[in-house]
Amino acid sequence: MTDRVLAIDGGNSKTAVLLVDANGTVLAEARGPGAPPQTVGMKRGLDVFESLAREAAAKAGLPPDEQIATHTSAYLAGADLPREEAELTQAISDRAWSTTTVVGNDTFALLRAGTATGGVAVVCGAGINAVGVAKDGRTHRFPALGQISGDWGGGGQLGNDALWHAVRAEDGRGPRTLLLPALLKHYNASSILEVVEKIHFEELELDPHALCPLVFETAAQGDEVAQAQVDRLVEEIALLATVSLRKLDLVTEPVDVILGGGVLTNTGDTVVGPVTKQILEAAPLARVRLVDVPPVVGAALLGLDHIGAGPAAEQSLRSAYTATP
Protein backbone atom coordinates (compact mmCIF):
# COMPACT_ATOMS: atom_id res chain seq x y z
CA MET A 1 0.00 0.00 0.00
CA THR A 2 1.20 3.49 -0.83
CA ASP A 3 1.95 5.38 2.39
CA ARG A 4 -1.02 7.47 3.41
CA VAL A 5 -1.96 9.46 6.53
CA LEU A 6 -5.51 9.59 7.85
CA ALA A 7 -5.77 12.81 9.86
CA ILE A 8 -8.66 13.55 12.22
CA ASP A 9 -9.32 16.86 13.93
CA GLY A 10 -12.14 16.04 16.33
CA GLY A 11 -13.46 19.22 17.89
CA ASN A 12 -16.46 19.85 20.11
CA SER A 13 -18.53 21.41 17.33
CA LYS A 14 -17.18 19.72 14.20
CA THR A 15 -14.99 16.90 12.94
CA ALA A 16 -12.61 17.26 10.01
CA VAL A 17 -10.92 14.33 8.27
CA LEU A 18 -8.09 14.59 5.78
CA LEU A 19 -6.45 11.82 3.77
CA VAL A 20 -3.01 12.64 2.35
CA ASP A 21 -0.22 10.68 0.74
CA ALA A 22 3.43 10.69 1.79
CA ASN A 23 4.15 13.57 -0.60
CA GLY A 24 1.64 15.81 1.14
CA THR A 25 -0.90 15.56 -1.66
CA VAL A 26 -4.49 15.85 -0.49
CA LEU A 27 -6.36 12.75 -1.61
CA ALA A 28 -9.71 13.56 0.01
CA GLU A 29 -11.37 15.34 2.90
CA ALA A 30 -14.62 15.04 4.80
CA ARG A 31 -16.41 17.05 7.46
CA GLY A 32 -19.08 16.17 9.98
CA PRO A 33 -20.49 17.00 13.40
CA GLY A 34 -18.46 17.21 16.57
CA ALA A 35 -18.40 13.87 18.36
CA PRO A 36 -15.91 13.89 21.27
CA PRO A 37 -16.00 10.31 22.60
CA GLN A 38 -15.84 11.55 26.19
CA THR A 39 -19.05 13.51 25.57
CA VAL A 40 -21.10 11.35 23.20
CA GLY A 41 -19.69 7.95 24.20
CA MET A 42 -16.80 5.96 22.77
CA LYS A 43 -18.79 3.92 20.25
CA ARG A 44 -20.83 6.81 18.92
CA GLY A 45 -17.81 9.07 18.66
CA LEU A 46 -15.73 6.49 16.82
CA ASP A 47 -18.65 5.64 14.56
CA VAL A 48 -18.74 9.29 13.45
CA PHE A 49 -14.98 9.26 12.86
CA GLU A 50 -15.19 6.00 10.93
CA SER A 51 -18.04 7.23 8.76
CA LEU A 52 -16.01 10.28 7.77
CA ALA A 53 -12.85 8.23 7.29
CA ARG A 54 -14.69 5.81 4.98
CA GLU A 55 -16.20 8.76 3.14
CA ALA A 56 -12.74 10.20 2.55
CA ALA A 57 -11.43 6.80 1.42
CA ALA A 58 -14.28 6.47 -1.07
CA LYS A 59 -13.64 9.97 -2.40
CA ALA A 60 -10.00 9.00 -2.88
CA GLY A 61 -11.09 5.99 -4.93
CA LEU A 62 -9.85 3.37 -2.48
CA PRO A 63 -11.43 -0.08 -2.59
CA PRO A 64 -13.75 -0.62 0.41
CA ASP A 65 -11.77 -3.66 1.52
CA GLU A 66 -8.41 -1.84 1.52
CA GLN A 67 -6.83 -0.37 4.65
CA ILE A 68 -7.42 3.36 4.61
CA ALA A 69 -3.93 4.51 5.58
CA THR A 70 -0.51 3.58 6.86
CA HIS A 71 -0.96 5.83 9.88
CA THR A 72 -3.87 7.47 11.69
CA SER A 73 -3.13 10.85 13.27
CA ALA A 74 -6.09 11.72 15.50
CA TYR A 75 -6.11 14.92 17.55
CA LEU A 76 -9.26 15.18 19.58
CA ALA A 77 -11.07 17.50 21.96
CA GLY A 78 -11.47 15.70 25.26
CA ALA A 79 -8.20 13.79 24.96
CA ASP A 80 -6.92 15.81 27.88
CA LEU A 81 -5.07 13.25 30.00
CA PRO A 82 -2.56 10.50 29.12
CA ARG A 83 -5.07 7.88 30.27
CA GLU A 84 -7.65 9.20 27.82
CA GLU A 85 -5.12 9.30 25.00
CA ALA A 86 -4.18 5.68 25.69
CA GLU A 87 -7.81 4.53 25.76
CA LEU A 88 -8.60 6.37 22.52
CA THR A 89 -5.45 5.03 20.85
CA GLN A 90 -6.49 1.47 21.64
CA ALA A 91 -10.10 2.03 20.55
CA ILE A 92 -9.08 3.59 17.24
CA SER A 93 -6.41 0.95 16.64
CA ASP A 94 -9.10 -1.72 17.09
CA ARG A 95 -10.97 -0.20 14.14
CA ALA A 96 -8.02 -1.16 11.89
CA TRP A 97 -8.12 1.96 9.74
CA SER A 98 -4.31 1.90 9.57
CA THR A 99 -1.22 0.06 10.74
CA THR A 100 -0.23 2.62 13.38
CA THR A 101 -2.17 5.20 15.38
CA VAL A 102 -1.32 8.24 17.46
CA VAL A 103 -3.94 10.12 19.47
CA GLY A 104 -3.38 13.49 21.12
CA ASN A 105 -5.23 16.57 22.27
CA ASP A 106 -6.48 18.74 19.41
CA THR A 107 -4.47 21.73 20.66
CA PHE A 108 -1.28 19.95 19.52
CA ALA A 109 -2.72 19.89 16.00
CA LEU A 110 -3.38 23.63 16.24
CA LEU A 111 0.25 24.20 17.23
CA ARG A 112 1.60 22.08 14.36
CA ALA A 113 -0.76 23.83 11.94
CA GLY A 114 0.85 27.11 12.92
CA THR A 115 4.52 26.19 13.14
CA ALA A 116 7.09 23.48 12.50
CA THR A 117 9.47 24.72 15.21
CA GLY A 118 7.49 24.28 18.41
CA GLY A 119 6.10 26.99 20.63
CA VAL A 120 2.78 27.54 22.36
CA ALA A 121 -0.77 27.22 21.08
CA VAL A 122 -3.94 28.51 22.74
CA VAL A 123 -7.35 27.46 21.48
CA CYS A 124 -10.49 29.32 22.44
CA GLY A 125 -13.57 27.92 20.79
CA ALA A 126 -16.29 26.03 22.60
CA GLY A 127 -13.75 25.60 25.41
CA ILE A 128 -10.27 26.84 26.16
CA ASN A 129 -6.89 25.10 26.37
CA ALA A 130 -3.20 25.54 25.70
CA VAL A 131 -0.12 23.43 25.04
CA GLY A 132 3.54 24.16 24.63
CA VAL A 133 6.35 22.25 22.94
CA ALA A 134 9.99 23.26 23.28
CA LYS A 135 12.57 22.57 20.56
CA ASP A 136 14.15 19.89 22.77
CA GLY A 137 10.82 18.03 22.94
CA ARG A 138 9.71 19.10 26.41
CA THR A 139 5.97 19.73 26.61
CA HIS A 140 3.66 21.66 28.87
CA ARG A 141 -0.10 21.25 29.00
CA PHE A 142 -3.10 21.81 31.24
CA PRO A 143 -5.68 19.18 32.30
CA ALA A 144 -8.42 21.31 30.66
CA LEU A 145 -11.22 19.57 32.53
CA GLY A 146 -13.26 22.70 33.15
CA GLN A 147 -13.89 24.36 36.49
CA ILE A 148 -12.46 21.44 38.49
CA SER A 149 -9.07 22.00 36.85
CA GLY A 150 -9.11 25.79 37.22
CA ASP A 151 -10.33 26.68 33.72
CA TRP A 152 -12.38 29.70 32.71
CA GLY A 153 -13.22 30.77 29.19
CA GLY A 154 -14.44 29.59 25.81
CA GLY A 155 -17.69 30.26 24.02
CA GLY A 156 -19.66 28.01 26.33
CA GLN A 157 -18.43 29.85 29.41
CA LEU A 158 -19.20 33.28 27.96
CA GLY A 159 -22.68 32.19 26.88
CA ASN A 160 -23.56 30.71 30.27
CA ASP A 161 -22.25 33.79 32.05
CA ALA A 162 -24.29 36.03 29.73
CA LEU A 163 -27.47 34.30 30.88
CA TRP A 164 -26.32 34.52 34.52
CA HIS A 165 -25.78 38.28 34.24
CA ALA A 166 -29.10 38.79 32.43
CA VAL A 167 -31.01 36.95 35.15
CA ARG A 168 -29.39 38.99 37.91
CA ALA A 169 -29.99 42.23 36.03
CA GLU A 170 -33.69 41.42 35.77
CA ASP A 171 -34.22 40.34 39.40
CA GLY A 172 -32.09 43.10 40.93
CA ARG A 173 -29.16 41.08 42.24
CA GLY A 174 -26.83 42.43 39.59
CA PRO A 175 -26.08 45.64 37.70
CA ARG A 176 -28.00 46.74 34.63
CA THR A 177 -26.61 45.33 31.43
CA LEU A 178 -27.50 45.37 27.74
CA LEU A 179 -27.14 41.60 27.89
CA LEU A 180 -30.67 41.44 29.28
CA PRO A 181 -32.47 42.99 26.26
CA ALA A 182 -30.08 41.19 23.93
CA LEU A 183 -31.01 37.80 25.37
CA LEU A 184 -34.71 38.66 25.46
CA LYS A 185 -34.53 39.46 21.75
CA HIS A 186 -32.54 36.30 21.08
CA TYR A 187 -35.17 34.14 22.79
CA ASN A 188 -38.13 36.28 21.66
CA ALA A 189 -39.22 36.49 25.30
CA SER A 190 -40.63 39.24 27.52
CA SER A 191 -38.88 38.02 30.66
CA ILE A 192 -35.61 36.22 31.24
CA LEU A 193 -37.34 34.26 34.04
CA GLU A 194 -39.63 32.86 31.34
CA VAL A 195 -36.53 31.66 29.50
CA VAL A 196 -35.05 30.11 32.64
CA GLU A 197 -38.26 28.23 33.41
CA LYS A 198 -38.43 26.81 29.88
CA ILE A 199 -34.81 25.69 30.10
CA HIS A 200 -35.50 24.12 33.50
CA PHE A 201 -38.48 22.15 32.18
CA GLU A 202 -36.51 21.19 29.03
CA GLU A 203 -38.97 23.07 26.83
CA LEU A 204 -36.07 25.16 25.54
CA GLU A 205 -32.51 24.10 24.90
CA LEU A 206 -29.77 26.21 26.39
CA ASP A 207 -27.13 26.70 23.70
CA PRO A 208 -24.47 28.85 25.37
CA HIS A 209 -22.37 28.96 22.20
CA ALA A 210 -25.19 30.81 20.42
CA LEU A 211 -25.19 33.41 23.21
CA CYS A 212 -21.43 34.02 23.06
CA PRO A 213 -21.57 36.52 20.13
CA LEU A 214 -24.04 38.63 22.12
CA VAL A 215 -21.32 39.26 24.71
CA PHE A 216 -19.04 40.81 22.11
CA GLU A 217 -21.88 42.75 20.50
CA THR A 218 -22.99 44.32 23.78
CA ALA A 219 -19.39 44.99 24.83
CA ALA A 220 -18.92 46.91 21.56
CA GLN A 221 -21.92 49.04 22.58
CA GLY A 222 -20.09 50.11 25.72
CA ASP A 223 -21.74 47.71 28.17
CA GLU A 224 -19.52 47.39 31.22
CA VAL A 225 -20.74 43.95 32.28
CA ALA A 226 -20.11 42.43 28.85
CA GLN A 227 -16.78 44.24 28.55
CA ALA A 228 -15.68 42.77 31.88
CA GLN A 229 -16.30 39.30 30.43
CA VAL A 230 -14.23 40.12 27.34
CA ASP A 231 -11.44 41.56 29.50
CA ARG A 232 -11.37 38.43 31.64
CA LEU A 233 -11.23 36.23 28.55
CA VAL A 234 -8.26 38.23 27.23
CA GLU A 235 -6.52 37.81 30.56
CA GLU A 236 -7.15 34.04 30.63
CA ILE A 237 -5.87 33.48 27.09
CA ALA A 238 -2.74 35.53 27.74
CA LEU A 239 -2.23 33.73 31.06
CA LEU A 240 -2.41 30.29 29.45
CA ALA A 241 0.20 31.34 26.89
CA THR A 242 2.58 33.04 29.30
CA VAL A 243 2.45 30.27 31.91
CA SER A 244 3.36 27.73 29.21
CA LEU A 245 6.18 29.97 27.98
CA ARG A 246 7.55 30.29 31.49
CA LYS A 247 7.28 26.58 32.25
CA LEU A 248 9.31 25.81 29.11
CA ASP A 249 11.83 28.64 29.70
CA LEU A 250 10.82 30.36 26.45
CA VAL A 251 10.02 33.88 27.64
CA THR A 252 13.35 35.25 26.39
CA GLU A 253 13.40 33.24 23.15
CA PRO A 254 12.01 33.99 19.68
CA VAL A 255 9.02 31.66 19.82
CA ASP A 256 5.74 31.13 17.98
CA VAL A 257 2.49 31.59 19.89
CA ILE A 258 -0.38 30.28 17.77
CA LEU A 259 -3.96 31.32 18.47
CA GLY A 260 -6.99 29.45 17.16
CA GLY A 261 -10.59 28.47 17.78
CA GLY A 262 -13.79 30.20 16.74
CA VAL A 263 -13.87 32.79 19.53
CA LEU A 264 -10.41 34.02 18.57
CA THR A 265 -10.73 33.79 14.79
CA ASN A 266 -14.23 35.30 14.56
CA THR A 267 -13.86 38.40 16.73
CA GLY A 268 -11.36 40.38 14.67
CA ASP A 269 -8.87 42.31 16.77
CA THR A 270 -11.20 42.58 19.76
CA VAL A 271 -9.48 39.71 21.56
CA VAL A 272 -6.34 39.04 19.53
CA GLY A 273 -4.99 42.59 19.85
CA PRO A 274 -5.13 42.82 23.66
CA VAL A 275 -3.98 39.19 24.01
CA THR A 276 -0.95 39.91 21.84
CA LYS A 277 -0.10 43.00 23.89
CA GLN A 278 -0.20 41.07 27.16
CA ILE A 279 1.86 38.17 25.82
CA LEU A 280 4.53 40.51 24.45
CA GLU A 281 4.80 42.23 27.81
CA ALA A 282 5.88 38.88 29.28
CA ALA A 283 7.75 37.49 26.24
CA PRO A 284 8.93 40.37 24.03
CA LEU A 285 10.40 38.13 21.30
CA ALA A 286 7.27 36.02 20.86
CA ARG A 287 5.64 35.89 17.42
CA VAL A 288 1.91 35.91 18.15
CA ARG A 289 -0.45 35.10 15.28
CA LEU A 290 -3.68 33.42 14.33
CA VAL A 291 -3.42 30.01 12.71
CA ASP A 292 -3.74 30.35 8.94
CA VAL A 293 -4.66 26.79 7.93
CA PRO A 294 -7.30 24.45 9.39
CA PRO A 295 -6.13 22.49 12.45
CA VAL A 296 -6.74 19.22 10.58
CA VAL A 297 -3.72 20.22 8.48
CA GLY A 298 -1.72 20.20 11.72
CA ALA A 299 -2.98 16.69 12.47
CA ALA A 300 -1.91 15.61 8.98
CA LEU A 301 1.50 17.24 9.38
CA LEU A 302 2.03 15.39 12.67
CA GLY A 303 1.14 12.22 10.79
CA LEU A 304 3.60 13.02 8.02
CA ASP A 305 6.25 13.66 10.68
CA HIS A 306 5.48 10.22 12.09
CA ILE A 307 6.03 8.42 8.78
CA GLY A 308 9.20 10.38 8.06
CA ALA A 309 7.96 12.65 5.27
CA GLY A 310 10.21 15.62 4.59
CA PRO A 311 9.80 19.40 4.27
CA ALA A 312 8.63 19.11 0.67
CA ALA A 313 5.56 17.16 1.81
CA GLU A 314 4.75 19.85 4.36
CA GLN A 315 5.09 22.58 1.74
CA SER A 316 2.86 20.67 -0.65
CA LEU A 317 0.16 20.18 1.96
CA ARG A 318 0.23 23.78 3.16
CA SER A 319 0.05 25.08 -0.40
CA ALA A 320 -3.27 23.28 -0.86
CA TYR A 321 -4.96 25.56 1.65
CA THR A 322 -5.80 29.23 1.67
CA ALA A 323 -5.13 31.55 4.57
CA THR A 324 -8.64 31.08 5.93
CA PRO A 325 -8.73 28.97 9.16
Automatic annotation (TrEMBL):
<dbReference type="InterPro" id="IPR002731">
    <property type="entry name" value="ATPase_BadF"/>
</dbReference>
<feature type="domain" description="ATPase BadF/BadG/BcrA/BcrD type">
    <location>
        <begin position="8"/>
        <end position="303"/>
    </location>
</feature>
<dbReference type="InterPro" id="IPR043129">
    <property type="entry name" value="ATPase_NBD"/>
</dbReference>
<protein>
    <submittedName>
        <fullName>BadF-type ATPase</fullName>
    </submittedName>
</protein>
<dbReference type="Pfam" id="PF01869">
    <property type="entry name" value="BcrAD_BadFG"/>
</dbReference>
<dbReference type="InterPro" id="IPR052519">
    <property type="entry name" value="Euk-type_GlcNAc_Kinase"/>
</dbReference>
